[in-house]
Every structure is written in C-alpha cells, then in structure tokens.
TrEMBL record:
Pfam families: ABC_tran, TOBE_2
Official protein name in the record: Glycerol transport system ATP-binding protein
PROSITE patterns (alphabetical): ABC_TRANSPORTER_2
Homology family: Belongs to the ABC transporter superfamily.
Protein's organism: Yoonia maritima
GO molecular function: ABC-type ferric iron transporter activity; ATP binding; ATP hydrolysis activity
GO-annotated cellular components: ATP-binding cassette (ABC) transporter complex, substrate-binding subunit-containing
C-alpha cells in the first residue's frame, strides 16, 4: 500500500504542446491517501485512463512527477511499482485453469505453495469461481474471464495499489452489484489503495471513499459522495452526479438575493458581486411545486413515476428543468410555480462554485 503523490503532473499526446488545450491531462497536484478507495469518474475522453496509465507506468507524463510514499517512480517500469491492474476487457491465460490463472502472480514471485493454495481458494470464493477452479479458461464467457482478471488483480496482499480500468463493462448487470460489494469488502479487509476508473456514477458512488470527477482533462472536484451531491464545485459535477442532475438557472446576484426570470429568490446566504456568467444551481430534490402565487413561474410538461419517487418535468421560461416529488404526492393540476429550499442552493460564476460570504439574516 502506498500514498500516491501527483506533483505538477500533466500529459499531452502531441510532441510539442503549445497551449493548455493541447493537454489531454491538465496540470494536477494532489496527494492520494494510503489505503483509501478512489474512483475516477467522468465521460469518455476526459482523461481518466490517461491518468490511470501514468500511475501504472504504462505511460510517461509530459511533465511532473508521480511518487509512491515519497519515492519518485515517474520513470520506473510497471514491474517495479508493485501495482496490480485490471483492464476493461479480460486478460487471462486461455490454456491455464482458473486455479493457475489466479495463482500465477504468487507463483511468479516464489510464494509458499500452502499460502498460494489458501489465497487462491479465498479469492475464488470472493469471485464465485470455487466450482470452476480446475476448468480451462478458454471456454469461459467474457464475464467469467473478467472475474478471473479481477481475482488475479486482488490475489496479492502487499501491492502498492490496485488499479481498475472500467472492469465491469463486460460483466452481466446482475453480477455488477455483487462484484462491487466484494471489491469494497476486500478494501475494508486489507486496506489496499484502490483506484477505479468508470463513467458510471453508481459504480463510483457505491465503491469509493473519495470520487475524483474529471472534465476536459481536468480534475474539477475530489470529494465524498455526499460532498459531490450537496456542494458540487463545478457545474459539470452537478450535471453528472445525480439522476436527474442539477438544474442551472441564469441569474443576477445581489447579496443574498438572486433574480431569476424576473423573480427575486432568497439564496439563504450572502455573496459578493460576481463577474462573468452567473448561475444558481438547485438539485431536483430541493425544488418544490407551488400553487400559492409565490416562486418562479413554471409549467408542468409531464410526470414520470419511477417507483421510489416522481420526476416532474417543467418548463421555466423556455428552459427544461426537473423537480422530484414523493412517490405518494398528489400533484395539483393548477401547479404553476416552483420554489427553492435555500439549503439546497449553490451559486456559480463561469461554472465554478462561489463560496458564500455570510449567512443570510
């Protein structure tokens, strides 16, 4: 296990990058705590796999350093970093049995046969392959092969880090939750530093202690699932985390009041004057429907009953927004306005969250 330090790290696939836009991974400085589970979350092309491959040694950064426990490993080959990596598509030895595939990393370094047998059986139970240990990998399905890859990545107990690059892509949906739970249990038991790349927010939020949200080659926020939900540091985080994502309203801010579509809204806190594009972000959970003439004018377009709650789709001055109502809520036909819960309001200037200066009186 290791603390992973990213020091002035950036990478471009161009030979002579001349501007920030030429970098697939923009400058990053951060310490990742020894023994924590992180998820790199973002849409395709945001830089997740680039960062993971730099950590693993498959890619050398254009600038900066990477350190394991303060030891510079920037130019160290993968084999010297003592990491295990599981890729999106299964990598197994088809001519070997499941048992031999799982045992390979331990045999390769000369571990005691009794320990190998015990560890292989433990991992096989964890991935649900106990009854197939003597079967050749060649005839197995893609999801079974990926479980072997996961098991082989987890079989060593003393690795500096376990790296997972979208490992559940080929796994049947009914198995995904079980394997995520098993990975989480392994982390709790052995305390490995784990880094898990995914574009699936459910995978990230259920697996990780801290989620690293990436957008356009940049880390825009690192935080717990609760922090990402309640206080998104960037509008992309608000949009990407949550279903539906955060609603954004163009606004003019004056102290503790915002003007949205000509309506004055209490922000619940005071803000200094902002330049650039100013927006108010409110998650659907913090929007309430109103019939008493207060709030922002809105028109219901449709109601989606998703079982646990209802998603109310509304038009606000030509903008499509969402509100969430309780499953048993009786939504009045004359609903024509929305109001915000002040504790769920965030203010953004040019997409970045603005810290309130004072609580409103």
């Amino acid at each position: 296990m290791a603390k992973i330090t990213l020091d002035n790290l950036a990478h471009s696939y161009l030979p002579n990058p001349s501007s920030e836009n030429d970098f697939a991974l923009k400058e990053l400085n951060h310490d990742w705590t020894d023994g924590e589970a992180y998820a790199l979350l973002g849409s395709s092309g945001c830089g997740k796999s680039t960062l993971l491959n730099i950590i693993s040694g498959l890619l050398h950064p254009s600038q900066g350093r990477i350190l394991f426990d303060d030891k510079d490993v920037t130019h160290a080959p993968t084999a010297e970093r003592n990491i295990a990596q599981v890729f999106q598509f299964p990598v197994v030895y088809d001519t070997m049995t499941v048992r031999d595939n799982l045992a390979f990393p331990l045999r390769n370094r000369g571990d005691d046969p009794k320990y190998i047998a015990q560890r292989v059986n433990q991992i096989a139970a964890m991935i649900g392959m106990e009854d197939r240990l003597n079967q050749k990998a060649r005839g197995l399905t893609a999801d079974a092969k990926q479980k072997i890859s996961l098991g082989r990545g987890m079989v060593r107990e003393d690795v500096n880090a376990l790296l997972f690059d979208e490992p559940l892509t080929v796994i049947d949906p009914h198995m995904k939750w079980e394997l995520r739970t098993q990975l989480k249990a392994l982390h709790h038991e052995f305390g490995h530093t784990m880094i898990y790349v995914t574009h699936d927010q459910t995978e990230a939020l259920t697996f990780a202690d801290k989620v690293v949200v990436m957008y356009d080659g940049r880390v825009v926020q690192i935080g717990t699932p609760q922090e990402l939900f309640e206080r998104p540091a960037h509008t992309f985080v608000g949009y990407f985390i949550g279903s539906p994502g955060m609603n954004l309203f163009d606004a003019t801010i004056d102290g503790s009041t915002a003007s949205i579509s000509g309506t004055q809204i209490d922000l619940g806190a005071g803000y200094t004057p902002q330049t650039g594009r100013t927006q108010v972000g409110v998650r659907p959970e913090f929007i309430k429907l109103s019939t008493d003439g207060t709030g922002i004018p809105a028109r219901i377009q449709r109601i989606e009953d998703v079982g646990r709650h209802k998603i109310v789709r509304l038009d606000v001055n030509g903008q499509q927004i969402a509100a969430i109502a309780d499953e048993g809520a009786n939504i009045a036909a004359d609903t024509n306005r929305i109001v915000f819960d002040p504790k769920g309001i965030n203010v953004y200037a040019d997409d970045w969250r603005v810290q309130p200066q004072q609580e409103a009186a």
